[in-house]
Amino acid sequence: MSFHIESVVLGMVGTNCYLLINDGTKETVIFDPGDEGERVAAYLSRENLKPAAILLTHGHFDHIMGVEALCAAFDLPVYIHEEEAGVMEDPALNACGMIGANVKVKADHLVKDGEVLNLAGADIRVLFTPGHTRGGVSYYVEEIKAVFCGDTLFEGSVGRTDLPTGSMSVLIRSIKEKLFTLPDDVQVLPGHGGATTIGWEKKNNPFVC
Hints:
Its cofactor is Zn(2+). By secondary structure, the protein is of the alpha/beta class.
């Protein structure tokens, strides 16, 4: 079974939405649909892809606002960590006040650290990586050596921790104890900016070296 990843940059703060696509079946897992759900839905339809689920790394508005439109178009299950459900359901915590919005999103499935989700034929391991928010997760797909890490780790940087439920000490611990235990050649796919690798970040990231 083979897979490939496509990405699109969405919305006012340039959020990376990733599509994990099963090459054989065209089943597709959507990671963090940003705030342009209609645009993602149109792309899926245009490319004849078969969306299977929405996986959210965390509950900030710029990662979750597209959920409603996608679910309206395809009736998809939504996954988030059990500690993060309250964040994305609460406008005071999901930072939507920064854009004058009132955003509340509910999940269908609450995941746990270490859980393996089989979606679109792929085994997707949940890594609990809090710090940017209290319930942030990363999703690791060993078969293609890729980790979708949201706003935990960036190329040469880390996620901000000055928003509600954030903690820099917790974030650094998550990176060192969870992400940096992955093989060096694993591709890091962050919520903003360009891709990188675990090995490069271990050697060069000034926040965690």
